[in-house]
Design goal:
The chain has about 110 residues and is mainly alpha-helical. Helices cover about 70% and strands about 0% of the residues. The protein has 5 helices and no strands. Helix 2 packs across helix 3, helix 2 packs antiparallel against helix 5 and helix 4 runs antiparallel to helix 5. The chain is globular, with a radius of gyration of 15 Å. The mean pLDDT is about 85.
Length: about 110
Amino acid sequence: MLHLGSLPHPPALVDFLRAYMEAMDEYELACLRSVTREAKSLLVGVAAASASAKDIDSPLTPEEVIAASRTEEEFQIENWGLVEGGHDLDRLNCSVQVRASMMFLNLLGKN
């Protein structure tokens, strides 16, 4: 079956993410948006924001969040090669966005 729309998600996941984001302030949401856009994944964004929570026993490091967000593009680079002035700048931008967002949460006292 060909499916061109978005994939369905379990209602429990949708409810969890809705409640999680509704509990965030505007600064946390800005950081979540930044990482989510860069990673093209809400779950990676939530992982980055959650890594800043004090109640997490083993928080993710910025390097782990960057690696998770770059998985697909790094796979393509391994298969097809690096495009200078493209992929290398994407790597740098990803690092800047993730680190800046996580540092901002740190400065807010969110971690």
